[in-house]
Amino acid sequence: MEDFDFETFISNYTQINNFARENGVKHSVTGPGETETRMTILDKHLSSPGVSHGGALAGLMDALLGFCALSSAIPDSNLVSTVEFKLNYFKPILAGDVLVGKAKVVRKGKSIIVSIGEIYRGDELVSHGQGTFNVYPLQKRKGSI
């Protein structure tokens, strides 16, 4: 796992992941099962003047937790899919906010991975989440990463 090329993986993942690309989501890997994800809140994310729709933050949290789980699974030639995730909203998110999510895998099994994450606006914690992800072989997915 130490010699896995995460840089190439992220480049390929970005090319095929429309959600991340269309919403300006940027992923990085600090280690297998430890990731950081960034997104700036744009006008298209707003539900009322100046305030983000909760779905934008939920989408970011799912992307954060899922990418974290994937970073743990992909070196073993596996992919993941979301089974469930929980999200706590702590603060309203505003237009122009730059959000940074940090996540880590807390349990990696043969068929399930659990990750936890926090999203910050600067030093302020704005959201916390936990996700459960199904693990399956890369070969089952045509046109994969």
Tell me briefly what this model is.
Helix content is 26%, strand content 45%. The chain has 3 helices and 8 strands; from the N terminus they run ααββββαββββ.
Note down, in words, how this protein is organized.
The chain is an alpha+beta fold and about 140 residues long. Helices cover about 25% and strands about 45% of the residues. The chain is built from three helices and eight strands, in the order H-H-E-E-E-E-H-E-E-E-E. The strands form two sheets. A six-stranded antiparallel beta sheet has the order 1-2-6-7-8-5. A hairpin with a 3-residue loop joins strand 6 and strand 7 (about 110-120). The two termini are about 15 Å apart.
Largest sheet: 6 strands, antiparallel
In helices, the fraction of residues equals 25-40%
Number of individual domains: 1
Oligomeric form: single chain
- Which structural class should the secondary elements be placed in? alpha+beta
| Count of alpha and pi helical runs | 3
What is the string of helix and strand elements? Answer: HHEEEEHEEEE
The appropriate CATH architecture is Roll
Task: Could you tell me the CATH topology label.
Answer: Thiol Ester Dehydrase, Chain A
CATH class designation? Alpha Beta
- Side by side, the strands of the main sheet go 1-2-6-7-8-5
Radius of gyration: 15 Å
